[in-house]
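Thread title: Can someone regenerate the structure for this chain?

I was given the following input by a collaborator and told the matching structure tokens would be attached. They weren't. Posting the sequence so someone can regenerate them.
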Amino acid sequence: MKHKSEMSKKKTALLDKRLYTLEVFLIDGPISEKFIKRNPVISRTIEIRGHRTLADLHATIFKAFDREEEHMYEFQIGGKGPQDPKAKRYGLHETIEDSYGKRKLASDTPIGSLNFKVGEPFGYWFDFGDDWWHQINVINIKEEAPVGKYPKVTKREGASPPQYEHLEE
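Best answer:
Regenerated them for you:
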């Protein structure tokens, strides 16, 4: 049986009507120099409601960057951006422990529960073998989302690199 406080948190998260605007920059990965020259900035702007989880954000980023094959992923929050050892980690399995400590479940973590502030960066790491690193910046938080379907990508800058470009060379 779940604790009352745990059920209360989930109910509160479902009522979170805030709208978060996040800018997701691809900052590292197996990309050719030729691709980087043609696309010096690769970013996607995403709007997502506060009741949606980090797993929902992952799915939106996955689609926004035209990825083809799922892999492990992790969000690093509360540090100074990607790869900060002081950040809290959220991913697919909470029981995985690495040199940074225990990872929490992304699917159990609503965006609104993370107390983000405008201007705050956090990290997103996709595919622990190819190491696609992203920095996510919180660029706006509205108290209530306008009517519409969320999450959604509102801006794309640069082309999406092929997920396995390095294998095609």
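The CA atoms of residues 41 and 158 lie 6 Å apart.
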